[in-house]
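haha ok so turns out i had the wrong file open the whole time. this is the CORRECT one, sorry everyone. sequence first:
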Amino acid sequence: MSSFLLRRGIDTPNGTKRWSKIFMRSLESLSFEHRATQVAFQEYLHAAREAATRVERFEAEIHTWATECSHAPVIKALQTLRGVQELTAVTLAAEIGEFSRFRNPEQLMAYAGLVPREYSSGLSSRRG
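then structure:
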């Protein structure tokens, strides 16, 4: 859609984020002179709306699962961390599984790839 609009010299309205409600309303107000261009644009717009609807359906299912599954207490606890909302908490719970399998936070961070640097030489290694 973005490339389609740029080829026709149309840019996003100032102060709006792409795919926001304001952006979508501004797209709905567009019309094109050539019928084929208008039809192609309407199909792009329909695909964007359908994708947004699919995301909403998936998020509703994830919410239902997150509140009913065996990991629900862990998911709720993870959401108390700053910046961790439901989708991130569900992802962490699904990827990590049982947090108790890690002996300490360092093991968890190494598993997650959150160790920013490592100095290794022979048998010794130091992570910072």
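The mean pLDDT is 89.
again sry for the mixup
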